[in-house]
């Protein structure tokens, strides 16, 4: 298993070699836009299963928080909670850890921002340039 594989230069060729020789079953994980690069797609074409993990939907957030909206009665009974959760989602998003762990919310959001925006996106934009 290679976790955060995008951090290892040449990992794609290594994985393809192992797969072609049928030496191992390989699981590659990562959270970076680099994993979507054309080189990755070309080298492992037909040999991958992509699983995207997306933020929770508002309905899922309500379900995780134990707020029922199955019918008009539950909706009416829970309207204040629903409004409060909507504001929370609009302010903080739907990442599962952020939704379910409000005590570490700020730290998680900062970490996600640093990883996604600063390291991944800016890294791709500035690839090959010196800052």
TrEMBL record:
InterPro entries from the UniProt entry: AAA_14, P-loop_NTPase
Pfam annotation, one family: AAA_14
SUPFAM superfamilies in alphabetical order: P-loop containing nucleoside triphosphate hydrolases (SSF52540)
Domain AAA: 2-62
Alphabetical list of PANTHER family matching this protein: ARCHAEAL ATPASE, ATPASE
Identification of the protein by name: Putative AAA+ superfamily ATPase
Species name: Sulfurisphaera ohwakuensis
Lineage: Archaea, Thermoproteota, Thermoprotei, Sulfolobales, Sulfolobaceae
